[in-house]
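Postdoc handover notes: sequence design on the structure in folder B. Input tokens:
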């Protein structure tokens, strides 16, 4: 019995990072990269390392570059924590697992630590494999919560639900994490949007601008808990930006060009999302330059996640060539994402 599962990266389109603070967001998953998990029955339980888990380097410079791109941990610890948390979940739910062992391995080509949710993609794919192997059914909203618990509880990684919900549901998703819903039932309101109502999209990223999500969330969480007024106001505004973007998108005719005035309004909402973050958080010059260069090409630009990758709207697909030319002398990769 061979089980193969996939999960895709996500880009936070608007509203992030209010998802960790009872806000609203819109995000989408795309299939240009993926995390894949393979699992089969075996005499002993074995987790196999991937190329990102290697411990042999060509030189100290190679080691330094690897840490900059991927951090100090590969995906191996994610698999181990996911299996442990899955077992806990089943015990909590009164689910008895078959007395079978397995071998599990993963592959991922999702750029690491650039805010495209590569880690949660590995966890999501791993949980889907475990669910299939043991014939365990988990709802999509519960799956998103379980993925988050792997990171928050097992690995003590600060994060919000946006990435996990987007990857559990797939496609273009509007998420409202209203406090009353979260406290009463443990999950928010998650609505599928029609991706054909989107203007043309691009993503640009630079792996050497990678920054772990904890860099942003640790500082922001502390300021939120202290009740700093600029932070509270920003979180409220990020939530409004998501709601306003959703309302504008729903006015678009699926598959038809977006009227110029509405497109300009959508550009402005995405730009405001980033500008608000930049006014609150210390951002590296490289990340600031990434956004600045993109905007000089006439597109909107904001972080897709914690930093290292940006996302935005284009007036037309032809703008991609302008972006590619602007970043031609850099190591920035630009592409139009293929929405799942």
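Designed sequence:
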């Amino acid at each position: 019995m061979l089980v193969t599962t996939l999960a895709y990266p996500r880009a936070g389109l608007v509203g992030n990072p209010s998802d960790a603070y009872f806000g609203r967001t819109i995000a989408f998953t795309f299939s240009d990269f993926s995390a894949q998990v393979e699992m089969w029955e075996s005499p002993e339980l074995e987790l196999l390392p991937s190329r990102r888990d290697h411990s042999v380097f060509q030189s100290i410079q190679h080691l330094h570059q690897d840490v900059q791109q991927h951090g100090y941990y590969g995906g191996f610890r994610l698999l181990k924590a996911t299996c442990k948390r899955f077992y806990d979940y089943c015990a909590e739910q009164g689910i008895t697992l078959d007395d079978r062992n397995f071998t599990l391995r993963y592959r991922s080509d999702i750029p690491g630590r650039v805010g495209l949710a590569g880690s949660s993609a590995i966890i999501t794919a791993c949980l889907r494999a475990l669910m299939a192997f043991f014939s365990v059914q988990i709802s999509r909203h519960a799956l998103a919560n379980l993925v988050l618990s792997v990171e928050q509880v097992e690995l003590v990684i600060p994060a919000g639900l946006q990435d996990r919900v987007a990857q559990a549901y797939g496609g273009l998703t509007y998420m409202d994490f209203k406090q009353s819903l979260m406290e009463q039932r443990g999950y928010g309101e998650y609505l599928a949007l029609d991706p054909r109502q989107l203007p043309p999209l691009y993503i640009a990223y630079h792996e050497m601008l990678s920054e772990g999500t904890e860099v942003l969330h640790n500082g922001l969480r502390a300021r939120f808990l202290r009740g700093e007024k600029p932070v509270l106001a920003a979180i409220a505004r990020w939530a409004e930006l998501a709601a306003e973007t959703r309302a504008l998108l729903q006015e678009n005719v699926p598959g038809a060009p977006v009227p110029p005035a509405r497109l300009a309004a959508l550009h402005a909402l995405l730009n405001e999302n980033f500008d608000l973050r930049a006014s609150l958080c210390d951002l590296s010059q490289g990340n600031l330059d990434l956004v600045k260069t993109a905007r000089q090409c006439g597109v909107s630009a904001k972080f897709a996640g914690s930093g290292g990758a940006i996302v935005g709207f284009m007036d037309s697909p032809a703008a991609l060539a302008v972006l590619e030319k602007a970043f031609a002398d850099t190591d920035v990769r630009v592409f139009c994402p293929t929405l799942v």
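Context for whoever picks this up: The chain has two domains: 2-193, 195-335. Don't rerun without checking with the PI first.
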